[in-house]
DNA sequence: GGCATATAGGATAAAAAGGTCTTACAATCT
DNA sequence: AGATTGTAAGACCTTTTTATCCTATATGCC
């Protein structure tokens, strides 16, 4: 276990979003899909469909409610739902922001305190380009669009 | 502290690479620069110049040595150095691979087991594009190029 | 009203990443 | 040869992230 390489490679997959954020995106897409069918979805169903731990998913959903991405209904027949208009409005960027904040846009690729073009790290130019593309993509992608792909059966929320 | 948003936003900056990988890139660039001047750089100097914890940096350097990115010289006047030819050859992708593995190329943006175009997650198309751009960038960027920017004083390894 | 079924929210636990320390060993210089 | 300066490697500690548990509270239905 002293091999750092093996340690890294097989334990954590380093990508853009935190685990919570990944769950949040998947959950939002699912809730959106259900909402289009006028259905309120409860926590258990979301966790099941999204393949996420129930209790952790609860935390994430709370956060999404606080950030006005979905709303919650208490009591039996309750759960989470999205306003139909919101489904078109909400984009990926909003969801990511609700959970991970805007660090992904501000952060330096080499881990310097913050990205600062006036004192750039060696990869700044190249990195900033990718990061801006990512930001643009997140802002341009609506939840509606993603839910549609799911509805049609072209995409999957878990495997 | 129950506010997940605050927790996420102000604690961890989620980006592409692990901390160790960030240090590795910075260290490699610095060693490359010193090597161009025919200088062997010792661990302490690297850590200082790169702004990384000494002991942790030692681990990272070991990994870089194992992966043939730099070589080490023991004893007094020892340290780490790069073959001059290697400086042009080695690209960012190699360094990232040495520390984080290839997860960044294989991973799914929504955290599914692995990215699989035959059973894509809802963001697959858009995400894969960004990820491929990143890969291309990493493969096209040589350490030489980055070291040069540093030498000229245009870029910084720490602030 | 009372009961069943939801979410809300705080406290807590487990796992992973990040970081340190200590001992061993290698090379160079007197 | 011995002292000194350096890397190698494993054990260990700390912090952050991920995940769970438990109690309180809200809502719908009988
Ligand atoms: S300063 Fe590093 S990415 Fe901008
Ligand atoms: S399947 Fe999710 S990114 Fe390819």
Topology:
Two copies of one chain form a homodimer.
Chain A: H1 4-11, H2 19-36, H3 43-50, H4 54-66, E1 71-73, E2 79-81, H5 84-89, H6 92-100, H7 103-106, H8 124-140, H9 143-151
Antiparallel strand pairs in A: 1-2
The complex binds FE2/S2 (inorganic) cluster (2 copies).
The structure holds a DNA duplex (30 and 30 nucleotides).
Task: Please explain how this structure is put together.
The structure is a homodimer of 159-residue chains. Helices cover 58% and strands 4% of the residues of chain A. The first copy, chain A, is mainly α and 159 residues long. Chain A has one domain (3-151): Arc Repressor Mutant, subunit A. Chain A has helices at residues 4-11, 19-36, 43-50, 54-66, 84-89, 92-100, 103-106, 124-140, 143-151; strands spanning 71-73, 79-81. In chain A, strands 1-2 form a two-stranded antiparallel sheet. In chain A, helix 2 packs across helix 4 (54-66), helix 2 (19-36) crosses helix 9 and helix 6 (92-100) packs across helix 8 (124-140). Chains A and B meet through helix 1, helix 2, helix 4, helix 6 and helix 7 of A and helix 1, helix 2, helix 4, helix 6 and helix 7 of B. Bound molecules: FE2/S2 (inorganic) cluster (2 copies). The structure holds a DNA duplex (30 and 30 nucleotides).
